[in-house]
Amino acid sequence: MGQNSLAGLEPVVVLTGAGISSESGVPTFRGAEGMWENHRPEELATPSAFHKDPEKVWRFYAWRRQVIGACAPNAAHRLLAEMESEIDDFTLITQNIDGLHQAAGSQRVIELHGSLWRERCLREGKRWESREQESPSPLRLCPDCGSLARPDVVWFGEGLDHQVYRRALEAAGRARTMLVIGTSAVVEPAASLPLLAQRAGAKLIEINPEVTPLSAWVNERLAGPATRELASWWTGQLAGT
Ligand code: OAD
User: Is the Cβ atom of 64 under 6 angstroms away from ligand 1?
Assistant: First the structure.
């Protein structure tokens, strides 16, 4: 299918949340099976928690690396990678830190909340990739200066990386079509990107089995799991319907 039939959708922006990875076996944050039901975020995912007990926080992230490292991208991740190669003006923004979009083949991913697979030196801010899960101590150190490292993720109470957020804002402001997949749309500032895009003229399509605060505003709601709903939406676009 040529790009011409898709050109009417462009620029396409996709915002994903934990729900897109749930069919890969990654726990979501909220809801009955959600991770925050079993862990208190303020004890694990805040700067003050890390300051108080970095070993405990690193143990939590080592556990998440173990759980997520055993998960594979699903058909929805793979289809988004395919869409990136079919659509000229395509931007994928994710709130997920799991790296499954990249594992599925997506090349350009705006990771709003950082990455589970990156670490950052607390002293100098240097970043590096790491898949380390177990070492004699759970604490991770900067390979250059030996200072304590932290997960390169955004914690509660922290702002987003300015450059990353600016790229997301710019993409949302230019979008003609925005797909919002698997997010409860309650965590700011990510939650505001779709409405901002809509105000600037984008058509909003939400894929989520549950109703969210965004649902009342979207132009189209596809109530179901991401793998199924994204595939049928994409088939419809290719067929020109
Ligand atoms: P949530 O756990 O808040 O929401 C997951 C959403 O996915 C819910 O609305 C579910 O209904 C939906 N969902 C579940 N299964 C699905 C499926 N198969 N297909 C499509 N949707 C499905 O996750 P997020 O919205 O991503 O931030 O959470 C936002 C942020 O809150 C996270 O990035 C994290 C957390 O605090 C930080 O850690 C900074």
Answer: no
